[in-house]
Amino acid sequence: MIAGGGPAGLKAAAVAAVRGHRVILFERESQFGGQARTAALIPGRSEFLGLVSNLAREASASGAELVAGVTVDLDLVMRERPDVVIIATGAVPYRPPIQDVNEITTLDACQILRGNAEAIGTVIIADERCDWVGMGVAEKLLREGRSVRLCVMGDVPGQELDPFTRYRWIGILHGLGVELIAHVRLSGASNGTVLFKHVASLAPVVCENVDTLVLAQSHRPLNELEDALAQFTGDVYPIGDCRTPRTAEEAVYEGLMVGLGV
Hints:
Largest sheet: 5 strands, parallel
Order of helices and strands: EHEHHEHEEEHEHEHEEEEEEHEH
Strand order of the largest sheet: 3-2-1-4-15
Helix content: 25-40%
CATH superfamily of the largest domain: NAD(P)-binding Rossmann-like Domain
Oligomer: single chain
Strand content: 15-25%
Number of domains: 2
Number of strands: 15
CATH architecture of the largest domain: 3-Layer(aba) Sandwich
Radius of gyration: 20 Å
Shape: elongated
Number of helices: 9
């Protein structure tokens, strides 16, 4: 049994099934793909949908049964009685313990991308990831007519990306009128003001007249199922973001390796 139909779970399903195991994969959402499907909603990143469709097709062709809209819990595991449970439940956005943030409209980047919430008025993006997320959300909101300040913890936005992608995107954002603030970490928000600290000097950096704060932070592993299966007598393998949030490439590789090892 595999819990989670993101890149790690789908790859594990394909490899285990082609090796002759009976594999059933459950995905709690109505569609497979996990974080990769959200990534495809970033401007210019639709290629992630190809990753999802290719992995799902590979898993089905290998003989794995894929079931959407079902959450795996202890009761389901005990009813199905698998020999092995592979946990690929992914991760959720991390909300940092900052002061007074509830006094301002605060959204996660994924809520913006999925259309689950709308950023209104003047927007601050607090980007500690320095990858495609903060830059992509900034571009999306700028094209929708929002005033955006992109505040990054690194030297430049997209610091974790390859130089070609990074500077191409910085050029797009500059052309759209983004305001960039580097070397800052979010510390709080209150009464329309978002507070940062400079990462080197620790001096306060104050951004006023803010209507919406968007968080592009790290992710927290969803590993509750692993804890629930503490008394399960079969083998349990947590893989992908539910172990440690990482890239899609690393998730696929980990799915491959556990599929080869079971």
